[in-house]
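Curious: why this fold?
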Amino acid sequence: MSYFDALGFAREPFPNAPDPDLLYRSPNHLECLRHMEIAVRLRRGLNVVLGEVGTGKSTLCRELRRLLAEDRNLETHLLDDPYFEDPADFLAAVAGLFGLDAEAMRGDQARLRGAIKAFLARQAADERHIVTLLVDEGQKITGACLELLRELLNFESTSHKLLQIVIFAQTEFEEMLAARPNLEDRVNFSLRAAAADPPPDPAHGGRASRPVRPGRHGAAAPVHPAGPAPHLPPDRRLSAQDRAPVPCGHAAGCGP
């Protein structure tokens, strides 16, 4: 008998891999998911989710990818390790995710940028089509590669960005952004993922039975204050109604 059977489990409950099926859907995590999905659908460009180690950023990233993949008009790519010493290798990795022949252009930043821009322009020919790049472990991005991301955000039509970028990173990324005002200014919305409080334990007088490490600004604290978070349903998946884009002025954090 396996220990899964002995404990009544069907699978490993605490794997090291970021499995979205095991995401604890706290109000803070649901807030992050909803805001990021709205930002992508509104084509607002750059969005950031910050959090301490162990607050579920990578799992949130995979769940966001899964949510976006449910819509055939949303094309989503994941860069799970963004560290590249050579910026040309970073561009080649992004081009490869887009299905471009990156090897033929490796080492040539100008050709890679041009190919990526042409790809995004082709995709934008269908006004319903949205290309999104999810970047995990964003704190590992070098300064030169952050500059390349800023340049990719310059690819735009008269009404919207051609590439939507969501970066999931540890809290030191906030300082990296602050050191680059021309990139920080591009951030549409920034949320902080926080450790979830456990449910009250009657054996401990209604208090949580174990300490929890909150985010630096506390649970569900936006890095850029944006008013109250919209209501989120407690079910595992966001409903179609709650996940639909809303007018910018009504979506917390989507203001100019």
